[in-house]
């Protein structure tokens, strides 16, 4: 049987941790959206247009990852 100790429930002092977790979630969501935006944008280009800017279609996901996550 599971029980909950009242002392283990979040208190006002724990909200800083929750706030940081929410902030990290928002950053991750923003980066994920940026990744998908770049993939969609580059995927819409023709092979010729990609070659003109120095990219190849097989590198789109790597380029998007670098744009979103900087790695």
TrEMBL record:
InterPro entries the UniProt entry points to: YjiS-like
Domain of life: Bacteria
UniProt cross-references to Pfam families, sorted A to Z: YjiS-like
Ranges where the YjiS-like domain occurs: 29-61
Protein name per Swiss-Prot or TrEMBL: DUF1127 domain-containing protein
């Amino acid at each position: 049987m599971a029980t909950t100790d009242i002392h283990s429930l979040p208190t006002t002092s724990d909200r800083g941790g929750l706030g940081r977790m929410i902030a990290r979630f928002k950053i991750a969501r923003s980066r994920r959206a940026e990744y998908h935006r770049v993939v969609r944008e580059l995927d819409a280009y023709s092979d010729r247009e990609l070659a003109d800017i120095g990219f190849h279609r097989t590198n789109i996901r790597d380029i998007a990852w670098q744009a979103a996550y900087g790695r």
